[in-house]
């Protein structure tokens, strides 16, 4: 994501606030406990963030307990019946306030017996290029992170790196890789296709230049995710929203890591890996911005600009494919689910 902030983002300015918002272990009766945690864990428990070059690293911990609604409802009903009997009342005579107290008591008791789920959201901020990278794909978890970043800096505002879908590019790459795909990219045998009716087909460890795939593309299927390798250095799956997953450095990239000859701590080794990946990711997205014409230089939310980009995208993919006249008969034989 891209971000804007009127304040300076740095370890010096953020560390005091991160410590104030530190994660505390969830209590027996709590539903959730959220806060920032030490970025190096037990290796440096009091270091809430870490700055290398122009990158600031941090981590958010989320602990939460989930109550089963049906089980909770039954427990409340049983407790309400017991309370009415003890007080010599009919259940319909119980006041709204008493109902609330019963509900709170039952929830508290149930929470004490539930083990929490625990999530870690790791992120780094490229303060030079105003970029935020997060290691989760869940939108709700990203929103929680941003919510807590706003507690540090109320003027820290994020938006997606791309303001429009990349599916037209991914589709044209898969349809005619030799002609349409940038030379520094190679396909890596995995793709996910989708149609307007939300049906989806996942191809894994297959020949992505097969006739079956070409037929699907000729019948308005769109590529939503494509496995790629860039310059033989970085493997990843690029999604149509511009996010990547299954990120993995190749042996070539690993061989470029500059490690200290005589490291004095594990942190030095970790730093070497972090620098390698942060630099590679920043360069990757800078390169993306150069090949994908989907970022709107005008004010966000302009419907006219969005429409014009969609028209241009549709025109591009239409011009790249030539529908085979006899492919319609083949479509009925395909298993697309």
TrEMBL record:
<comment type="similarity">
    <text>Belongs to the RdgC family.</text>
</comment>
<dbReference type="Pfam" id="PF04381">
    <property type="entry name" value="RdgC"/>
</dbReference>
<dbReference type="InterPro" id="IPR007476">
    <property type="entry name" value="RdgC"/>
</dbReference>
<keyword id="KW-0233">DNA recombination</keyword>
<keyword id="KW-0963">Cytoplasm</keyword>
<feature type="compositionally biased region" description="Polar residues">
    <location>
        <begin position="296"/>
        <end position="305"/>
    </location>
</feature>
<feature type="region of interest" description="Disordered">
    <location>
        <begin position="296"/>
        <end position="337"/>
    </location>
</feature>
<protein>
    <recommendedName>
        <fullName>Recombination-associated protein RdgC</fullName>
    </recommendedName>
</protein>
């Amino acid at each position: 994501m891209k971000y804007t902030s009127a304040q300076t983002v740095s370890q010096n300015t953020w560390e005091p606030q991160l410590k104030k918002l530190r994660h505390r272990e969830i209590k027996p009766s709590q539903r959730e406990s959220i806060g920032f945690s030490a970025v190096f864990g037990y290796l440096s428990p009091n270091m809430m963030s870490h700055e290398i070059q122009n990158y600031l690293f941090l981590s958010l911990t989320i602990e939460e307990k989930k109550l089963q609604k049906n089980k909770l409802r039954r427990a409340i009903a049983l407790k309400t019946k017991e309370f009415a009997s003890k007080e010599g009342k009919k259940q319909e005579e119980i006041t709204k306030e008493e109902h609330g107290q019963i509900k709170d008591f039952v929830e508290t008791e149930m929470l004490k017996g539930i083990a929490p789920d625990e999530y870690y959201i790791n992120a780094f901020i490229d303060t030079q290029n105003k970029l935020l990278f997060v290691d989760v794909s869940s939108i709700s978890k990203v929103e929680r992170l941003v919510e807590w970043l706003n507690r540090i800096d109320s003027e820290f505002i994020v938006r997606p790196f791309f303001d429009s879908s990349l599916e037209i590019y991914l589709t044209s790459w898969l349809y005619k890789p030799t002609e349409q795909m940038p030379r520094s990219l190679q396909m890596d045998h995995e793709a996910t296709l989708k149609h307007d009716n939300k049906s989806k087909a996942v191809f894994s460890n297959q020949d992505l230049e097969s006739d079956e795939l070409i037929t699907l593309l000729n019948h308005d299927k769109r590529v939503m995710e494509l496995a790629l390798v860039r310059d033989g250095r970085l493997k990843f799956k690029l999604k149509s929203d511009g996010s990547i997953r299954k990120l993995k450095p190749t042996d070539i990239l690993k061989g470029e890591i500059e490690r200290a000859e005589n490291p004095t701590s594990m942190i030095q080794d970790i730093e070497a890996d972090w620098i390698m990946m942060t630099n590679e990711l920043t360069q990757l997205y800078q390169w993306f911005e150069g090949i994908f014409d989907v970022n709107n230089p005008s004010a966000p939310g302009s419907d006219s600009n969005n429409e014009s980009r969609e028209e241009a995208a549709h025109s591009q993919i239409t011009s790249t494919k030539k529908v085979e006249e006899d492919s319609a008969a083949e479509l009925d034989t395909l298993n697309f689910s």
